[in-house]
Structure prediction request, 328 residues.
Amino acid sequence: METFGETELCFPQLLNASCLKPKRPHFEATLTYMLVYSIALITAVLNLLVIISISHFKQLHTPTNLLLLSLAVSDFFVGLLMFFQIMFIDGCWYLGDIMCTLYQYLAYVITSTSAGTMVLISVDRYVAICRPLHYSAEITKHRVKVCVCLCWICSIIFQTLNLQDVLKQPGQYNSCFGECVFFINYIGGVSDLIFTFILPITVIVVLYMRVFVVVLSQARAMRSHVAAVSLQRSVKVTKKSELKATRTLGFVIVVFLICLCPYYCVALTGQDNLLNGSSAAVVLCLYYFNSCLNPVIYAFLYPWFRKSIQLIVTLQILQPDSCDANMW
Prediction:
């Protein structure tokens, strides 16, 4: 029998019970680690800036921004989880079965919460564009807070039921020490596919198609000067603001779907629901990268976010009454 060197085993002291550690060129390994840690750090920091901005400045306490706050919280946790992702790339999991199960559980909860938040954002944009006269009455901060809380609670309960086999006996699907296998049974996989991917995408597409039709009709109406001349300026300013927000959030949703699709495309092919470390690393890294892109999109398209970053970095938020600063 061939004897493996210490560099080839995750836990050399366990001999044949340990998983093999794949050998990688030093330069490739160093570059990969630096890339993953850099993305994780940027993701956590940028989303923390979004959280601080919306939470601190009163002028940003709008229903739409509360939804962005929920998304930023989930993206912030994604940034923290990415620090553990390096072990998947390295090929060995050193934190034990319980931490592996917790890592899997949090990843699923965050994914379903993000999908639910995207649906709420789509509903917000639908009402803002298609029912503008009813927006202030139907979309209130209190209702948004309730919906966000329900989204998180339902995600936790849903994924607890889906992953109950793994939660009851952590590590039961691992074949050796140093492995962290992502497993979900057939029923759980189908329900996760339906409620976290198919239904949210269907709702998002239907709502944004409706928004797109209304936007086109409004554009034609404005070009043909249907609105009264005396009201045209105020109406135009309001519509321009809403259309810009809709365009920005639509871009966020498109990027989210692109990054989330690979995992569920694998699920749709009917392949084994058992994902090993390497395949899980690929699909998770792509999804995690989306959490880094969201605040970057805000920075380019939202002036208030750029201004809030300036106030935070220069520590002006520590001044009295800084929460009342004008962010527009």
